[in-house]
Amino acid sequence: MGSDGKITSCIIDASQSNVNFNASGKITTNLQNANLQTKNELGDKYDMKKASGIGKEWNEQAAAFASYVKGKTISEVKGISLSEDGRPAEAELASSVTVHVTDFISALEKASQNVR
């Protein structure tokens, strides 16, 4: 964040990995041999394009959202118009992002609170 409170850079990534735990909460998956990749690392292999109404993969949509919020304050980001299910409602943003963005916004808000 800049001294003016505006976002100067943003990268959004997430992971959905299958990691097993035992009853006491200890990880039982061999993490050294597991092929754990984030959605950005997976890229087209995440295979969301066919389900996307705009033909964009998750990482492309996350990058578009990250680009959209640059230059905005957290208040402006929190004020982005969303549909009832948390998808962008503004035409400009909805043309490049159809995934739910409420978690993106929450993560940005939390990150902004840790800026020194």
Describe the structure.
The structure is a single chain. By secondary structure, the protein is mostly helical. The protein is 32% helix and 0% strand. The chain has helices at residues 39-42, 58-69, 74-78, 91-94, 102-113. The mean pLDDT is 93. The chain is globular. The termini are close together. The chain contains five helices and no strands. The chain has one domain (1-116).
- Total of helices: 5
Q: What kind of sheet is the major sheet?
A: none
Please count the beta strands (DSSP E, at least 2 residues each): 0
> What is the domain tally?
1
Q: Please report the distance between the alpha carbons of the first and last residues.
A: 9 Å
What is the general shape? globular
Average pLDDT, all residues: 93
Helix/strand/pairing category: mainly alpha
Order of helices and strands: HHHHH
By oligomeric state, this entry counts as single chain
Q: Strand portion, in percent?
A: under 5%
